[in-house]
Amino acid sequence: MSQQMHYQPGPQGPIGAPGHQVARNGLGIAALILGIIGALSGLIPLLFWLAGILGIMALIFGLVGTGRAKRGQATNKGMAIAGTVLGAVSLILSIVGVVITVNAVGDAVNEINKTVEQSSVQPK
């Protein structure tokens, strides 16, 4: 005769129970990704505007993700903190990019004005 094997499944609790914790912190992950892209775009001279926008978003998402992790609603607090830091770095790079661009445009305008004044003063 055939024997049927019966097995007892292990105890199953809800997903989020202490034994089965799912890592979830979507805002922290979003902050990290936006911070990385923002910091990289801040290194490219004329993309300072993109670095500023992404930096602000990463900073907001990172702070909210960190707050959720402190309340126990989310895990991966480290990702949220890293996203916040990279968001701040993106903002700093964006400000530096604005200053460099404004100075470069100002210098170029001064050089053009000098050239125009010199050519108009000297008759041909």
TrEMBL record:
Matching InterPro entries: DUF4190
Pfam families reported for this sequence: DUF4190
UniProtKB keywords: Membrane, Transmembrane, Transmembrane helix
Domain DUF4190, residue spans: 27-96
Segments crossing the lipid bilayer: 21-40, 46-66, 78-100
Protein name: DUF4190 domain-containing protein
